[in-house]
Every structure is written in C-alpha cells, then in structure tokens.
Design goal:
Blueprint (H helix, E strand, L loop, with lengths): L6 H22 L19 E6 L2 E6 L3 E2 L8 E4 L10 E8 L4 H14 L3 E11 L2 E10 L9 E10 L2 E10 L3 H14 L1 E2 L2
Antiparallel strand pairs: 1-2, 2-10, 3-4, 4-5, 5-9, 6-7, 7-8, 8-9
C-alpha cells in the first residue's frame, strides 16, 4: 500500500470519511430526536382484544362494549358491569400536537392541574410504545349529573403532528381492583410512526 503525501489527496480522504460517518449517523438516527427507544410491543393480556383506528392501536378487555356516547374521543368502550353506578371505560382522544410524546404528556399534565374537577395524584416517567412519556393518575370529582367520583390512568403519545391520549377510567372506590386492567390498557397503547 502506498501512502500519498499529497495534501489534497489526504483532504479528499478526510472529507470522504467525514461524509461516510455523517451518512451512517443520519441513517442510524431515523428521527430528529433521540428520545425513542427500541420497542417490542407487549403480548396481548389474556382476555384482551386489539382495537385500531387511524394512527393508533390499543388492547381492551374483550367483554367491554363500544360506548354509545364517545364525547370528544375517537374511540371508547365500557365495562358492561357498573361499579357504584359507574361503568369503567377506556378511550382514545386525539388533537393536533407538533412536539414529542413527553412534551405532550407534560402539556396534558399541566392542563389536568388546571381542571377544577381533577386532582393529579401521580405523574410518573415511563416508556410507552418506545417513547419516553408520563403515566398520569388523576381523581375526578363527580360530574354535575352524577354522584360518583372516579379515577383515571392516562398515557400520552405524539406522532406525525397528532397528540394521542389513552385513558382508563374507573369508579374511585374500585380503582385498585381495576389497576392491572388499566395498566394493561395503557401499556398496550401504540401510535403509527
């Protein structure tokens, strides 16, 4: 192997090496942000079925039925058996949001903290669908037409300019009995990348 002493040749090689390293880093880094971790979806829990919509998927108990009224949600199912006159439910809500999942989760938490009927009981860092985000648990005072307070567990994700919220809501008195169900619902949540 002959080593060139020509400075322009060494400069060309250096530029080529820098270009190859930059190209490799660009390919290895498919997104603008480094926040997404490698992700393997969890297996469906026994008795759960996967539901999908435009840009999202979630697993819910197979015996929960589609909700007659969804409000602002794009998807909602309810447990047919009420507890304290409250039917547990799971829902997916979407809205425009241009940032990362953790930014969306923090914005959602800030909004919940301003909601007069809601009290955020916990906010914990977690990874859902490979994205760092928060899992929020909140207690809600009864709606004007109800006497039952309830608790929610929520995960927020963001992708392609859309913010997605997965919610599991249960009568406050039954939340601990439903905790594993809500965890399974929230952890199954995924969005299109």
């Amino acid at each position: 192997m002959t080593r060139s002493s020509d400075p322009s040749s060494r400069a060309t090689v250096a530029v080529a090496v820098v270009a190859m390293v930059a190209a490799a880093l660009t390919l290895a880094c498919g997104r603008k942000s480094h926040s997404r971790t490698s992700y393997t979806p969890p297996p469906l829990p026994a008795g759960f079925v996967e539901q999908t919509g435009t840009g999202w998927r979630i697993a819910v108990p197979s015996n929960w039925k589609e909700a007659a009224q969804k409000g602002p949600a794009v998807f909602a199912v309810t447990d047919p058996q009420p507890v304290d006159d409250f039917h547990a439910y799971a829902s997916v809500f979407t809205e425009p949001f241009a940032g990362e999942s953790v930014q969306y989760a923090k914005a959602s938490e800030a909004g919940l903290r301003k909601e007069p009927r809601a009290t955020v009981e916990s906010s914990r860092d977690d990874v859902i669908d490979g994205d760092p985000t928060l899992i929020l648990e909140s207690r809600w005072a009864p709606a004007p037409s109800s006497t039952v307070s309830y608790r929610t567990m929520q995960a927020e994700l963001s992708s392609h300019g859309i913010g997605y919220v997965a919610t599991c809501a249960v009568a406050a008195s039954a939340f601990e009995r439903y905790r594993s169900t809500c965890e399974s619902i929230v952890r199954s949540f995924a969005v299109q990348r």
